[in-house]
Amino acid sequence: MINYKPKNEGMEMWMICAAIGKNHELIDQMEKKEDGSYPIIFSVGGIELNFSQVAKRVEEEIGDLVTNKAQKLLDEKYEDLIGELIDMQERIKDQKENRFKYDWE
């Protein structure tokens, strides 16, 4: 069991809100400690697991998914532009190496 003190951000709060769903009356039924924290027991098959650790891992995974998706979208959007820039670099290099040679070089 952990004691969770609610914050306005973080995956723990999101997970609690997702579990409550539209049953807002459940909030009034929750046991609250004197320090304002709520005891959380997260168990699977009768084995207690670390709720904060799970929330942290979910938050990391979502962050990675968002980053990867954003990179993919940028790559797709600017793929043609990057290709054109690479083509321009190659043309300039070709011009420099083959066409602008002078006798004094």
What are the salient characteristics of this protein?
3 helices, mainly alpha, 105 residues, two-stranded antiparallel sheet, single chain, 11% strand
What's the quick description here?
This protein is mainly alpha-helical and 105 residues long. It has helices spanning 11-20, 25-29, 51-99; strands spanning 2-4, 38-40, 42-44, 47-49.
Care to describe what's here?
- Helices cover 61% and strands 11% of the residues.
- The chain has helices at 11-20, 25-29, 51-99; strands at 2-4, 38-40, 42-44, 47-49.
- It starts with a strand and ends in a 6-residue tail after the last helix.
- The mean pLDDT is 89.
Beta-strand content estimate: 5-15%
**Shape, principal axes of CA atoms:** rod-shaped
* Helix and strand element order: EHHEEEH
- How many individual helices? 3
